[in-house]
Design brief:
The protein is of the alpha+beta class and about 325 residues long. It is built from 3 helices and 16 strands. It has one domain. Strand 4 and strand 5 form a beta hairpin.
């Protein structure tokens, strides 16, 4: 009898089994939630890291270009430079704009529609970022930081291109013009010729609302650069930049101290500027599941309203000194 009773007591009762299953389910659910949360956190960290890297690269690129604007126009009188034209100029009809370095730094505040006038060579409205109330456009004209040919001698660190354009400087810097590489005379490239050749760059920086394919929805910093006979098709440089905002520090009394900052400077104020604040609104490439971004963002004196979407955003800012503008 006792042996039969002990046999009936072997194993788990139904209640004990149900309790065990419940505890196991709770533990499994907890582990699953931890895994999902860990995956979300990793995804957010990855998106944040990509935004930081993109902002660093864009800030370095824009800082260098702005600080180099006008170079080497500060070395000699820019009024001596003969203005030439290219077959597909970017300016308005009858205006030689690309190869005219007199306005070495140009800015348009909050472009929201197709570009016209001086920037007609980039007129497709689909490249304009319209979702953030517009974004700034920046033009930089400058030379390389050293001559490709110095007194007719090739710089071993330089590459001479027939399709590029060059400042041709002669007479000790008292005469200059911009010529295409293919038009440079062979005698200019003989040691002792008295000719210096500095590669010339003209670039347009702006934001468009796609990276590679129209409609991919990735805001991107693009650059249109002077090529063979005009500004070439804009190239995507940094993905995830939703808005570019620039503020110019104006020195109105020539004491090398900023008197005020302005986001909509005139050409005269740009000539009197000594610094530029660069503000970049970075956006994650992908949306984060379950996240709603209800934050607004300050970009200097300009505010960007909340989008209430699933994308992460950060504002990154830096200040760069202007050194070479002809008005200084």
């Amino acid at each position: 009898m006792n042996r039969m009773s002990s046999q009936y007591q072997l194993g788990l009762s139904l209640i004990e089994l149900m309790v065990s299953l419940l505890i196991g389910s709770v533990l499994t659910l907890g582990v699953a939630n931890m895994y999902v949360q860990s995956k979300v956190n990793y995804f957010q960290d990855e998106q944040t890291y990509r935004m930081q890297e993109g902002a660093r690269y864009a800030a370095r690129l824009l800082s260098r270009e702005i600080s180099m604007s006008g170079y080497p126009l500060g070395v000699f009188d820019s009024s001596i430079i003969a203005v030439n034209s290219v077959a597909n100029d970017c300016g308005a009809a009858g205006i030689d704009w690309i190869l005219n370095p007199s306005n070495a730094l140009e800015h348009t505040d909050n472009i929201t529609a197709a570009i016209s006038g001086d920037y007609s060579c980039i007129s497709d409205s689909s490249i304009i970022e319209t979702g953030s109330g517009g974004s700034d456009l920046l033009v930089v004209k400058r030379s390389a930081d050293g001559p490709a040919y110095d007194d007719g001698e090739l710089n071993p660190l330089a590459t001479f291109l027939n399709t590029a354009h060059y400042f041709r400087v002669t007479n000790g810097g008292n005469s200059a013009s911009i010529v295409k590489g293919s038009a440079v005379l062979p005698v200019d490239k003989i040691a002792g010729s008295g000719v210096d050749l500095w590669q010339y760059y003209a670039r347009i920086f702006m934001i468009r609302n796609y990276a590679v394919d129209v409609g991919d929805g990735i805001p991107t910093l693009i650059v249109g650069s002077l090529e063979d006979d005009g500004i070439g098709p804009p190239e995507a440089y940094v993905e995830g930049i939703e808005k570019l905002n620039l503020e110019f520090g104006i020195d109105s009394d020539d004491d090398d101290i900023v008197d005020y900052f302005i986001g909509t400077p005139t050409a005269a104020e740009i000539s009197d500027s000594i610094t530029v604040r660069i503000h970049l609104l970075m956006r994650s490439i992908d949306a984060v599941t379950g996240y709603v971004n209800d934050k607004s963002y300050a970009m200097g004196s300009e505010n960007v309203a909340a989008k209430n979407d699933g994308f992460l955003r950060r504002v990154y800012s830096t200040t760069v000194k202007i050194r070479n503008l002809t008005g200084r």
